[in-house]
Amino acid sequence: MELKDLKNKKIVIFSPEIPPSVAGSGVNAYYFAKFLSVYSSNTMLCHLNYNNQFPAWQKESKLIISRLLYYNKNITTKLLSFLPLLFSYFKKIKNNDIIIIYSGYLIGFQFVILLSLLFRKKVIFRSTLLNGDDAMTLVSGVFLLRKINKKLLGKITLYFSINKEFTKRYKKIFDNKVPVFESFQGVNINVFHPVSVNQKKIIRKKIGLPDNHVVLITIGNLIMRKGYHLLFPQIAKLTFPFIYLIVGDYEPTPFHKVSNKEKIFMKYLYNLGNAELGKKVFFTGPVSNISEYLCASDFYIHGAYNEGTPNVLLEAMACGIPSLLYKLTGLSGTLIHDNMNAIEYIDYDQIPSMLEKLYKDKNKMRKISLNSSFEIAEKYSFEKVATQLFKQLYA
Length: 395
What we know:
Elements: E1 10-15, H1 24-37, E2 42-50, E3 57-60, E4 63-70, H2 75-94, E5 98-102, H3 109-118, E6 122-126, H4 135-138, H5 143-153, E7 158-161, H6 164-174, E8 180-182, H7 197-207, E9 214-219, H8 228-235, E10 242-247, H9 260-277, E11 281-283, H10 290-295, E12 299-302, H11 311-318, E13 323-326, E14 343-345, H12 351-360, H13 362-379, H14 382-393
Parallel strand pairs: 1-2, 1-5, 2-4, 5-6, 6-7, 7-8, 9-10, 9-12, 10-11, 12-13, 13-14
Antiparallel strand pairs: 3-4
């Protein structure tokens, strides 16, 4: 099936969160849904509307956003929300042809799969985090849930694997029972792309960033898994003039589900960042113009030590921003080619010397910038990923 053939298809994408939350899978779901809405007869993006923060419906051009009410304040409100949530799932699945589930963190995703199977719909499931919602993790929990997850994940139409480690773990459970589409999740290259030196200066002025400092950026909520507690002391050692932008939630907000434990860690990390970096660190909170913040920056720093395929890393690469990242399972040697399209470290104390050297080597910076943006544009634009995805879905 070609993308043009989607004109007769109705698509619904389920995601736990979408913007203004900066959760990577939700951001990707939102942009991917907008892309698909241009081709399909109808594209709907459904997400959990925690504690009724947003209007129930919204339309952006051809994309319909449906917000499913879910009160998560306590166990009672969660239980009372569950049956109406299942009824919403029922209606959305019945009225669409292709069901795409972004993340095993979606509450009741098992019912989405079950209902999709009962209505004989095409169902795509996409894991987002290794050791979080990959196939092996989903079938290794509580006994009954483990059995249910294994039964349902073995019946889907297609498993969307966002790197080779997800594929390995899925096939270890299901062998070749279900087809696997393996590809990094894709980027909207109309939004995320390189800009000229003059454009960078204009963007910096627009968002209030200095011209005479190196701008470092990390995108992601202030949680321990993102490695901020390991990044802050190392970035503080840099000798060249810099500012460090952290884009994402640094305190609890209504837009992103945050546990009590995460709230404690957010406060700890916020205080640690200020203590280590002082006036050099800027916690921006979530922003709607992430592409501008990336294009205004000189280096993207990714500190997470447990990931799937980081959405923000793909976006930074698409913008041609030299990226430093921890050597991640499933990415090294596939998406990431060390010293060619990014820089990998295995110890956080390598970061200062790596950044200092790269800052002085403008030719290497230029090479990494060109290679990274070319890699994404040539292989992982939404158009290329979606074309291959739907070809395999209807093979």
